[in-house]
Amino acid sequence: MEQLFSHDELALITAAADEAGMPPREWVRCAVLQHLSEDDYEEVHPPARSPVRPDLEHALWPVTSHTRSGRTMHEVHHAGCWVPKGGEEALSTAEAREELLANKARPCDACLPERFLTPMS
Q1: Is 117 exposed, middle or buried (0-12, 13-18, 19+ CB in 10 A)?
Q2: Calpha distance 8→4 (Å, rounded)
Q3: Strands 105-107 and 71-76
């Protein structure tokens, strides 16, 4: 996060996060999700209500295919990942979880989508 924002911007983010009673990274994530979904994330999706993130249950997960060792391997990405070029097949959240758990696909090393697809602790 420090690479994305200037020191002044980080100070503003930290102050806003403190006011909201959230860690700065979580505050930025909520602000981005609110902007992308055009809803009030904090009111609609309280962070501690469900063991699974409700904001991602209806997400789509792009899948890229790579041929390695003579077989095709599928790689799951989150929507903001830079690896997919566009036009790839996409899985629902449930399908992406199933593919990863069954080892039919691997998570992208760049965006680490498994952090979104596993229940919150």
Answers
A1: buried
A2: 12
A3: parallel
Concatenated DSSP letters of 4-31: TS-HHHHHHHHHHHHHHTS-HHHHHHHH
Tell me which DSSP letter residue 83 carries: S
pLDDT digits (tens, 9 = 90+) for 23-49: 888 888 887 777 676 655 444 444 444
pLDDT (0 to 100) of residue 120? 52
Token digits of residue 58: 């209806």
d(CA 56, CA 49): 14
Considering the chain, what percentage of its residues have pLDDT values greater than 90? Answer: 8
62: helix, strand or coil: strand
